[in-house]
Write a structure and sequence with these properties.
- The chain is globular, with a radius of gyration of 16 Å.
- The chain has 4 helices and 9 strands.
- The protein has a single domain, classed as Jelly Rolls, CATH 2.60.120.
């Protein structure tokens, strides 16, 4: 059965399937994760996330952080889908912001948001989730609108 399962995975995910799966499992074994899956069903990246699902957590976000590990980020979980704007106030690192609707479909991306900027940035679509990752992450991993979020290790619902 192991060889059959391996063969199925290679067909579904290509020759890098074992590597992608092991990395995803290792990252998620330590806590909550979001895997971004392309419209073609192929996983693009897995991000170990801190969950900001309360008003206080969402307000603080990644402010004052001087470093964010590769494949790490913060997922902002809101109680409903609406137009969302973010700013980079007191945030010294450049971030990509990935906006997703209630179904977890990526609706838009703000790439390389300017550190310390008070200018509100967002996308022209309703979002229930916003994933913040290091600037350049989306370009590096070919993340684009139409991809979707798969959540693991946490409930993707707002606490308040």
């Amino acid at each position: 059965m192991g060889a059959t399962l391996h063969r199925r995975l290679r067909i579904g995910f290509g020759p890098l399937a074992p590597v992608v799966i092991v990395l995803a499992l290792l990252g998620c074994a330590r806590g909550p994760c979001v895997t971004i899956v392309g419209a073609d069903g192929q996983p693009r990246a897995t991000v170990a996330v801190e969950v900001a699902n309360t008003g206080a957590q969402r307000e603080l976000g990644l402010m004052y952080r001087k470093h964010l590990d590769d494949n790490a980020g913060m997922i902002f979980v809101f109680p409903d889908a609406a137009r969302r704007n973010f700013w980079m106030h007191n945030t010294p690192i450049s971030l990509d912001m990935i906006f997703a609707d209630a179904a977890g479909r990526v609706t838009g991306i703000v790439a390389n948001a300017e550190p310390f900027s008070d200018k509100p940035v967002g996308v022209q679509a309703d979002s229930e989730y916003v994933l913040e990752v290091n600037g350049g992450f989306c370009a590096k991993n070919a993340i684009k609108p139409g991809d979707r979020f798969d959540f693991s290790g946490f409930s993707p619902h707002a606490s308040e």
